[in-house]
Structures are given as C-alpha cells and as structure tokens.
C-alpha cells in the first residue's frame, strides 16, 4: 500500500479583531480594505480570501486564503490598524492548513500563561509537600 499525502490549497487564519462595534458585514469590508491598502485591487483577486466563520461573542473569525498568498495576507493583517478613523487591531491567534486545529482553543495556540504559574516559592520547609529547596508544586 502506497502512502499518500493530502495537501491543502488553502490556509486558515484564526484572527481576533478589536474594534468598537463589529458585524459580519463590517468584517468583510475590513478584510477588503486591509488587502487593498497593502496590495491594491489586484491583491484582492490574487488572494482569494473568504471569511468562513465569525464569532461575535469573542470577536474572532476564520479567514481562508490561498496557500501562495499566506505571507501577503499575514503582512496585511499585521499592518492594518485603523478602520473608519477608529483603532482596529487584528491579532492572529492561529494559522493552519486544516480547520481542525482551529477548533481546539488550546492546541497549537500561543499561550500567554506563564509556564511557572503552578509553582510557589515557600521559605517554610515544615510543609510535607515541599521539597528540600522550599519549592511547592501544586
């Protein structure tokens, strides 16, 4: 049996938007303006972007783009900062060639939590949970 690799022609970006009042219609305009500011009208046609999902509760959306235009879209997202004279920050949370990794909030995401969050430094060595250095691991 021969092994086969499945390649995706698209990449999917999970993006958080920080804007006063955002709707799906405004989001479509933001994406078009973002690409037009960086690459002009030809950039919109060449990138083949589409908003697949918009979650208004946490202001995140999934943007699909062609594999070859990923770096261009990433650049446009990073440089975009104003929409209709109001600050509008777009933050890329995850990027994947598949939709499945975007469904799990913990998988492959950038953690803003300290890796030492559950370690407490304790100078009292009388506690049974402490090791000889006075570090208690919860």
Automatic annotation (TrEMBL):
Biological-process GO terms, alphabetical: tRNA 5'-leader removal
Any one GO MF annotation of this record: ribonuclease P RNA binding
CC per GO annotation: multimeric ribonuclease P complex; nucleolus
SUPFAM superfamilies: Rnp2-like
The keyword Heme appears for this protein: no
Record field: transmembrane: none
Keywords: tRNA processing
Family: Belongs to the eukaryotic/archaeal RNase P protein component 2 family.
Official protein name in the record: Uncharacterized protein
Organism phylogeny: Eukaryota, Amoebozoa, Evosea, Eumycetozoa, Dictyostelia
């Amino acid at each position: 049996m021969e092994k086969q690799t499945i390649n995706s022609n698209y990449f999917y970006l999970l993006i958080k938007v920080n804007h006063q009042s955002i709707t799906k219609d405004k989001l479509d305009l933001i994406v078009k303006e973002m690409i037009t500011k960086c690459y002009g009208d030809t950039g919109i046609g060449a990138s083949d972007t589409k908003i697949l999902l918009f979650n208004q509760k946490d202001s995140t959306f999934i943007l699909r783009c062609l594999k070859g235009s990923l770096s261009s879209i990433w650049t446009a997202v990073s440089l975009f900062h104003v929409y209709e004279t109001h600050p509008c920050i777009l933050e890329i949370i995850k990027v994947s060639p598949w939709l499945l990794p975007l469904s799990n909030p913990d998988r492959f995401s950038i953690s803003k939590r300290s890796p030492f969050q559950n370690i407490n430094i304790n100078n009292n060595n009388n506690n049974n949970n402490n090791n000889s250095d006075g570090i208690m691991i919860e």
